[in-house]
Amino acid sequence: MYVRVSTQRQAQAQTIEQQLEQLRLHSQAHGWVWSDEHIFRDDGYSGASLRRPGLDRLRDQVSTAAFDRLLITEPSRLARPVCASSASH
After folding, report:
1. Where are the alpha helices (H) located in 1-89, listed in sequence order?
2. I need a labelling partner for 65 at 20 to 30 A (CA). Which of 35, 43, 54, 71 fits?
3. What is the DSSP letter of 31?
């Protein structure tokens, strides 16, 4: 599970804990079990940067095939869409 919020405004709309709860419920509905070591979180990091502690740890675990699926609440949690990043420069 990967969760992220980058701004206080985002944190008010959907907190990290709310994202985790949504993903836990989805996992339980499918019978998927997650250990805490497979929860990756980045509080206060922008999606424009691919250098984030939680995302770095996630990439390290993926490279060792530590798990077979990744859950996110929406693609923007991993990275900002290319068109949005390009428009901001």
Report:
1. 8-13, 16-30, 53-63, 82-87
2. 43
3. T
